[in-house]
Amino acid sequence: MSEDRGPVPSVTCPVHPENNRIQRVSVVYAADAPPLLRPGPALRSASRIAWAGTGFGVAGAIALWIGALLGKGASGPALIAALVCFGYALALYGWAGARRARVMIISRGMPGALAVWGAAWYCDECDGVFFDSEVAPDADVVEGEIITPAAFHRVVWRAGRFGGVPGRMVG
Q1: Is 15 helix (H, G, I), strand (E, B) or coil?
Q2: Which of 16-20, 66-70, 86-90 has maximum average pLDDT?
Q3: How far apart are CA 139 and CA 120, in angstroms?
Q4: What is the SS3 assignment for 138?
Q5: pTM above threshold 0.85
Q6: Which is more confidently placed, 32 or 114?
Q7: Which strand (E) or helix (H) includes residue 126?
Q8: From 41-45, 98-102, 147-151, the region with the lowest mean pLDDT
Q9: 170 pLDDT band (50/70/90 cuts)?
């Protein structure tokens, strides 16, 4: 059973010019999603974290209310429980804020990263990436040179200015 990979591209691999298994990086990524060919960091919402913080804040308020209702012996433990809940709420709100800031940085950098990512070709035989455009996307990348997926990942991240963004590069 032969696999239809579409028309043969007009570009050739600098190392294997006879190889017809050349595809755009975007096509390879869409087919089997190798993490090093990802166009940028994964965006994850902060909403669940913020809602968890709200839940802890409500739990702290309920603890204070129950302590006030029960009076004397219950107010001390209720105050401690409320402080713990409020502490978790503040920590979760801080985490959500940091995640929202990360999403903003990634959103601003995606056009540059996608421009580089979209200009790249993947050679199945080399397991490498190369560019055929006249402008090399990075000073370290020479037009027509094969680079590893890991090096390509770094080139895309530099183009998107994701270098200072915390998080996993792959996965």
Answers
A1: coil
A2: 86-90
A3: 15
A4: coil
A5: no
A6: 114
A7: none
A8: 41-45
A9: very low
- Please check whether residue 79 is in contact with residue 61, taking contact to mean a CB–CB distance below 8 angstroms: no
| Residue 54, token pair as written in the block | 């709200």
CB atoms within 10 A of CB 50: 18
Closest CA to 130 of 140, 150, 144: 144
Token duo for residue 60: 């702290």
| Both structure tokens of 97 | 């804020």
Name every residue whose Cβ is closer than 8 Å to that of residue 143 and which is 6 or more positions away in sequence: 131, 132, 133, 134, 136
Hey, where are the domains in the chain?
22-160
* Burial profile 6-41: b = 16 or more Cβ within 10 angstroms, e = fewer: eeebeebbbebeeeebbbbbbebbeeeeeebbbbbb
Structure tokens at 3: 């696999």
Amino acid at 114: L
pLDDT of 55-87, one tens digit each? 999 999 999 999 989 888 888 899 999 999 999
**Euclidean distance between CA atoms 171 and 119, whole angstroms:** 23
Dihedral class, residue 46 (left if φ above 0, else alpha if ψ from -120 to 50, else beta): alpha
- Lookup: tokens for 145: 């040179």
Going from the C-alpha of 10 to that of each of 7, 26, 32, 100, 121, the distances in angstroms are 9, 16, 23, 42, 11
pLDDT at residue 6, as a whole number: 52
